[in-house]
Fold these 3 entries.
Entry 1:
Amino acid sequence: MRNTSAKHSRTKSWKTSRNKQRRTGVVQPIGPVQGFTIDGLTHEAKGVARNHGKVTFIEGALPGESVKGQVVKSNRRYDEAKLINIEQQSEHRVSPACPHYDECGGCRFQHLALEQQRSAKMTWLQGQLRKVWPAQGLTLLADSPLGYRRRARLSVKVKGQGLRLGFRSASSQDIVSIDNCLVLTPKLQQVFASLKATLKHDAIDDKLGHIELLEDDKGASVLLRLTAEIEPATQQQWQQWADQASLDLYWQYPQEKRALVTEDTMRHYQLDELSLSYHPQDFIQVNGTMNKKMVKQAIDWLAPNKDDVILDLFCGVGNFSLPLAKRAKKVVGVEVQASMVKAGQANAKANHLDNLSFIGADLTHMPSKEISQLGVTKVLLDPPRAGAFEFLPTLVKLKPKQILYVSCDAATLARDTEYLVAHGYQVQQAGMMDMFPQTAHLETMLLLTR
């Protein structure tokens, strides 16, 4: 009989150690300090080195650099190392503007010059799309590298006598307490400073789950998600603060899945001379300026006309649907979240778009016959990170002349596009959209023609 007790003990010890690392963010080295030459960069902004044929990823290192590093995690095919020292620095290395760069898990590309950030993302995207877009170049859509983020979720915690307000660390669940966030819009940076100063002198902080900041054409707003009830007097004091700061205040109480919002307190933003209303917790694009550029490019590429019947899949509150409906014969938006379907319907009515309708449907399941009977000529597809693979067989059966695919995950985009190409479609245009400068994230737009 095998003795499993020692194995169980080792497994338990390893799991305990790993869980401790996850909680604390402290990673123990498992090798000596050694030299590495960096010859590549991953899409997560990690330097790539090859040591005796084995790939090593080193966060913070850049191509062209000679560095000292120490392996902290070893797998059969690759190692991960901690950057100890930079022996020879890249000419493209810059000093991060944010003082919280080393701790915060957000803007991992800040140590690389902006042009090279975008070049690195383009190179990685081209690699992902090499099977479907091998020869032609990619277009680039970009804007300001800082002050662009109009929405943020803040974590909050009382630790000892101190308040921690900010974002999660890159390597653990610990909260990095920040004084400012340079990618927030200037107005939200002001709101953040005022919010932090107010929380330091208020007992509400231990009753908060998280805080959401938002800015749109209605102005700035703060949503407080409560984990426990508060006194009416405390709530009134916070309302006075919001009034003085010229912002809207929303409360999400412990028993609520979402904050209760009336028609008068809905949010809204302007797009293509249209007004879109939405619940403050509904999805909207984080970068407002880039969203306008993205929608314009989508319209230019898809070129809707008065003979087109267009299907807008994963449509949200109508970010693409409404501008398309201004130009097409008919547009049908499909969205799984009921509140956004309702908001989309209200937006169509408010903007007098009688040729626009919305359907509530989960596109990971078999769609209704209503979709197959539309006579669709063009499709706009803007799925979440998981992509739209489950819907693709239905999409191919609809036989639209063109498909415009907007993606926030290049890997699932490549997978889905390969399926469409295998079923009679060809990529006509492809472009990267730098929606989140300073971060490793990118958005992609593809136009496919049957």
Entry 2:
Amino acid sequence: MTSRSTGHGVAEPKQQRSRDSFAKVRSAVLQLLRERGTGQFSLAEVSAAAGLSVGSIYGRVAGKAELLRVVQSEEFDRVDAETELRVGGAAEPAHTFEQATTAIVGAYSDILRRNRDVLSPFFLLGVEDPVILRRGRRSGDAGQEVFVRALLSAAEERGVDLSRERAEWAFEIVYSLHIRHLGLGVATTASLDGQYDSVTLLRRLADTVHLILADSQRMHT
């Protein structure tokens, strides 16, 4: 089978049939991750869900660990790109800095919430797999940078003197509360933090972040 190298260290075959087959394998892994909320499944279960033999999977990856790393890399690349696009541009329609803050917090919150079933299992897998842990941290750092940059840009465009330190602290609050509320790092079947619904959490988070930033001095009178 003729193949070419990909950025994930896995050979990408030139034949469309082979590419389609491996896409089914990746899709099966995502399905099982969402259903189980963990990586507790076998390659035999992946092959059954994909409708392919275990041998064909071993023809592409060395084992389950490598397969999970491939899937994580592709999914986190997708989430990173979505974060850059949505969070980075969230404040553009806003007239005031408060509106911009709410839009940025809302966009980031929505990305975490909609991708929860994919992100959470990899939080758990990263405890045992340093490669998955490093990739997760890289994505987390990238998300923080987009969030902070969006806040700083929104502040500058609206005449607000905002320090990076204060913007980073705002991110830490938003991120930490979402870890708890969404139960990132626990099985999907576990009960999430039911103290607030998503709408209430978002409103309170936006209010909190704005209060943190509210005493920033105006750059222009």
Entry 3:
Amino acid sequence: MTRLLMISGSTAESSLQTSALRTAVRLAPPGVVAEVYDGLRHLPAFVPGEAAPAAALAVRERIAAADAVLFCTPEYAGSLPGSLKNLLDHVVAGGDLGGKPVAWLSVATPGQDESARVALETVLAHCNARLLHAACQRIPLMPHAVDGQGMVSDAQLHQALGDMLQTLTRILTQVQTSQAPSWQINSSLFPTLTREGDRPTFRPRRPF
């Protein structure tokens, strides 16, 4: 079973981003449990040096439990919404995205959220998250595509969202099955251990 956590960068319940993720939950393929994080509006401000509040610990636990995280965010004032950046500040402090597979979904037309996307990728890099570039997709939505219940109602868009989830799941499966073998150990203190046959050949440096 694959657990997918979806995070919208908008605090508006009727936003295109939240509506797209809410719809995607219903379109999750078999074997995938998807959920949308809905606590962004009530997340306390990150304060360096202070203990993480309960709401921050809760979202960090949900991220840690997920096999992958999908972000969908609008652009505010040429960058990420402050509420999403606040969440990421909490997560950076906890290190919960380290090595975690992540991707983004854009529902804006090209050129309307490029700064937010670049900022998101920059912060995710600081979190040491594993960005699945091939799973990042743009599915432009217009306001009329969302019904009164905050769901995407267009059948073609349903197909696009379903295809996006299938792609993300397939890539995630490939990532999980291509992990380093048990004989290979990576450490920040020691070099990578390799099998005898893989040992590199070192050539002495010529004297000047």
